[in-house]
Amino acid sequence: MAPVREWNRTAVMEFILLGFGNGPGCQMIPSVLFLVIYTVTVLGNTILVLIIRVNSRLHTPMYFFLMNLSLLDLCFTSTIAPKAMASFLSGSKAISYNGCATQFFLFGLFITTEGFLLAVMAYDRYTAICNPLLYPVTMSKWVCVQMVAGSYICGCVNAMVQTGFTFKLHYCGRNEIDHFFCDGPPLISLSCSDTYVNNLVMFTLCGLIIVSTALIVLISYISIISTVLRIRSAEGRHRAFSTCTSHMLVVTLFYGTTAFMYAQPTWLSSLYPRKAVSVFYTFVIPMLNPFIYSLRNKDVKEALRRTMGHK
């Protein structure tokens, strides 16, 4: 049996992404839905990036981070959407071993980076509202660049660790991933190796990242709320809160879904509809982000009107 087992381990050269089922409607409906969402995501985030770039009034730390969030969302959803749509439309659900590893790494890189970047954006709002006199020094251009770079470094380290542990496992014949992209839990479940260490590493790292970044956000907004409530004028309180509400909504959506997916034991996560939640944070949230930030932001709306040539 040992030689057969060893042959099966080397035989898995590709994986099959099962997606949402095998029926015609199970492929056509998601493909159309993904195409519409992906198109809106690309247009919305690209327009927001261009607006921030061409309008000098938006060259501030808050919009610098927002521009990087839009670029990150473009990369994040582009890691998954094109392959998923191609699989739905062509019927070919295969993805190579190396292609799966690459998608897994990029997904881990971008989703982790986004978590840290959202924490950085919360700290930026805390500094602007609670320490306005020190804000130009504390959040200088060089500091902002370092914070974004640090977010990517943290994302890269986590992605390297997760990818290394996951693709060191042996896969013995079973190669059907019950998902529409190469995600950790369904991929690890295919392994014929002992996956206890992998599940522990994934749970620990994801838990630490989510808890640490969420704590930064929580502490920042507790301090912001405390400061804003001491502002005497209603107009002043409204202006202070208006710069934070969009970010708070995005943070709630992002951390709520990622914690639901990754910061819980594997045996518990299998009880929930992973695919539906995955669609939400891989497609819907990147699509909603530019609209959440622009529709509730007077500066962005004014810059959009100027860019389009309206008085």
TrEMBL record:
Domain G-protein coupled receptors family 1 profile: 44-293
Family annotation (CDD domains): 7tmA_OR9K2-like
Membrane topology: Multi-pass membrane protein
Annotated GO MF terms: G protein-coupled receptor activity; olfactory receptor activity
A single GO cellular-component term on record: plasma membrane
Record flagged with keyword Iron: no
TM regions (residue ranges): 28-51, 63-81, 101-121, 142-161, 200-229, 241-264, 276-295
Localization, UniProt: Cell membrane
Main subcellular location of this protein, as a coarse class: membrane
Pfam family membership, one: 7tm_4
Superkingdom: Eukaryota
Classification via Gene3D superfamilies: Rhodopsin 7-helix transmembrane proteins
Keywords: Cell membrane, G-protein coupled receptor, Glycoprotein, Membrane, Olfaction, Receptor, Sensory transduction, Transducer, Transmembrane, Transmembrane helix
Family: Belongs to the G-protein coupled receptor 1 family.
Protein purpose: Odorant receptor.
Protein name per the record: Olfactory receptor
Species of provenance: Gopherus agassizii
